[in-house]
Amino acid sequence: MPLLDVCFSPELIHLYDLKGRVVVVVDILRATSSMVTGLAHGLEKIIPVSTLAECQQFASKGYLTAAERDGKKAEDFDLGNSPFSYMEDFVKGKTLAMTTTNGTHAIRLSLAADKVVVGAFLNVSSVAAYLVEQQKDVLVVCAGWKGKFNLEDTLFAGALAHKLQGLFESENDATLAAYHLYETAKSDLPLYLSKASHVQRLKNLNITKDITFCLQQDVYDIVPVLEGDYLV
Ligand code: 3SL
Q1: Is the dihedral of CA 152, 198, 96, 218 positive or negative?
Q2: Largest CB tally within 10 Å, which of 94, 105, 118, 171?
Q3: What DSSP string runs through the chain?
Q4: Do the beta carbons of residue 170 and residue 153 sit within 8 Å?
Q5: How far is 128 from 126, CA to CA, in rounded Å?
Q6: Interval between CA 67 and ligand 1 midpoint (Å)
Q7: 80 CA distance to ligand 1 centroid (A)?
Q8: Within a 13 Å sphere around the CA of 99, how many CA atoms are in the beta-carbon half?
Q9: How high is the pLDDT of residue 201?
């Protein structure tokens, strides 16, 4: 049976051998939720980059760009990180270079994996089905916040563990912890997360409808996969 494991922060990723694994990168609030939304709404490709400077280089080549730092849209880029802006008509058919505080960095750190895919509550069942098809060991990489643990990404890992129960070997401490946390939270995710650090951070910026949107399950049935530099 393939293995399911969870890396609670990009700072811990050096402890895992990514070779031979499928990595599921998750940043529920909001990077991977926005990526899934954009690709589901007709965005053609996403180039995840780590720095504002790299993203700026794509701007000068005529690409559409998205940049967020500390929850805010960075100046001089086309988009920030609200999933609603990724539904706009002007993104359809475009390639987007994107950098966010934690999510795109976590993707870049996962490149040694056999495959890197992007997960969110918005596509959680499709991700689970994809992983069953692949039959490889899986590592869920939680983007966290500036190297620290966060609740929302861990709950996603727990939701995945629920869906893959009996199909993946999940008896490791990280997956068990995520599983049990999700068990406690699943009846009302928004309520459970109401005191979470990043929920508070976004609320302080008056970003509340994004939170509600990103905590919905199975709105989309796509699984973005990294092919070379592009998420498609
Ligand atoms: O950290 C990230 O990558 C972002 O998703 C953070 S925010 O939700 O845009 O504030």
Answers
A1: positive
A2: 118
A3: --BEEEESSGGGGGGS--TTEEEEEE-TTTHHHHHHHHHHTT--EEEE-SSHHHHHHHHHTT-EEEEEETTEEPTTSSB-S-GGGGGSGGGTT-EEEEE-SSHHHHHHTTTTSSEEEEE-GGGHHHHHHHHHHH-SEEEEEE-TBTTB--HHHHHHHHHHHHHTBTTBB--SHHHHHHHHHHHHHGGGHHHHTTT-HHHHHHHHTT--HHHHHHT--SS-----BEETTEE-
A4: no
A5: 5
A6: 10
A7: 9
A8: 17
A9: 97
pLDDT score for 153:
98
Q: Where are the domains of the chain?
A: 4-225
Distance from residue 34's CA to the centre of ligand 1 (Å) = 10
* 154 C-beta closer than 6 A to ligand 1: no
CATH 3.90.1560.10 fits 4-225, yes or no: yes
Name the band, by pLDDT with cuts 50, 70 and 90, for residue 62. Answer: confident
Closest atom of ligand 1 to CA, residue 210: 8
Q: What is the largest CA-CA distance in the chain?
A: 49
Indicate yes or no: pTM above 0.95: yes
Best probe residue, ligand 1, of 68, 202, 215 (max atoms within 8 Å of C-beta): 68
Give the total residue count for the chain: 232
d(CA 99, CA 49): 5
Handedness of CA 188, 193, 83, 51 (dihedral sign): negative
**Which residues are 98's β-sheet partners?**
48, 66
Closest approach atom of ligand 1 to CA 202: 10
